[in-house]
Amino acid sequence: MNSSRIEYFDFLRGIAIIMVVGIHTFVAYPIDTPLGVCSAFFRQVLNCAVPIFLALSGFFLGTKSLNRWDEKYCFWKKQIPKVYIPALIWSFPYFIQNVIQVQVGDILIKQVVALLVCAFSIYYFIALIVQYYFLLPMLQKYKHVMMPISVVVSFFSILLITYISSVQGIQLPLIVYAGPFTTWFVFFMLGVYYSSSKINYTIKQAVSIIVFGFALECIETYWLNTNYGGGYGIKFSAFIYSIGVVMFILSPKVKAFYTHNKLTSLIAYVGNIRLVFI
Fold it and tell me: Which of 61, 50, 44 is nearest to 17 (CA)?
């Protein structure tokens, strides 16, 4: 598929940005109240935000020529500093704040490590995307094998994360459960795969996965929340829902329905704020 920069993809990025803002401003209410049900419902809609970003990244990066070592080296040399250096700069205030609050010794060393691996706040995403940069040549070369592998790896990863964090009640740092490439593998791989492969599914099939996944999301969220608390974010059902969303937005038929107007162009403008990881 043609991955040239067009307004439709900027619009998708804009939607994903708005969704991320929604995720980080979400307030949970008791799920057995009307307000709690409504807030939980809309929170589930937003769970596809990060998968959209990753799928678009894979879609645009998947067509790069990375067959020779010099091509790989030039790509890594150019792309990694563009995301890693800004992440260090924006993470530094968190680092200073934490250092002031602790004593010297092994805790200080932990803060340095956290800074270097982008473990502060939402900058786990930078560590995540850098891993995909390194994996990209292999993912391109063996895409037909890596596509099913990515599905299995992601689903086992999210099941393990849900069990540890929700069922066992162990609070994992964001970088631990969201930072490894294994967690979101399927979404980046979907982008890579369909950047150079023919779309072989229908809109109806994509919508069916969305509806099925979203229904499971609502059920799983209620079950997790009533039994263990929380349960609003990433989970097995959210991944099914997000796969359907990614398939839907990458469909050329859906792209053909995109209409330029004041609202869509405004959202596309938000998405056109250059995202260095794409």
Answer: 50
Tokens of 46: 């937003």
Q: For the segment 73-129, what is each residue's pLDDT rounded down to a tens digit?
A: 999 999 999 999 999 999 999 998 888 876 555 578 888 999 999 999 889 999 999
> Residue 211 and residue 199: Cα distance in Å, rounded?
20
Task: Name the token pair of 37.
Answer: 């049900």
Burial class (CB in 10 A: 0-12, 13-18, 19+), 5: exposed
The residue among 1 and 199 whose pLDDT is bigger is 199
Question: What is the C-alpha separation between 166 and 119, in angstroms, rounded?
Answer: 21
Closest by Cα among 153, 162, 159, 160 to 182:
153
* pLDDT tens column, 156-187: 999 999 999 888 888 889 999 999 999 999 99
Distance CA 188, CA 135 (A): 11
Phi, psi dihedral angles at 105 (to 5 degrees): 115, -150
Give the helix ranges, DSSP H, for the chain.
7-24, 34-45, 49-61, 69-101, 106-116, 124-141, 143-162, 174-177, 181-195, 203-228, 236-250, 252-256, 262-271
Which residue, 177, 185, 175, is CA-closest to 152?
A: 185
d(CA 35, CA 78): 47
Please, what sign has the CA dihedral across residues 86, 117, 147, 42?
negative
Our measurement of the distance from residue 277's CA atom to the centroid of its chain's CA atoms, rounded to an integer in Å, reads 12
Its sign, for the CA torsion 166, 170, 174, 178, is negative
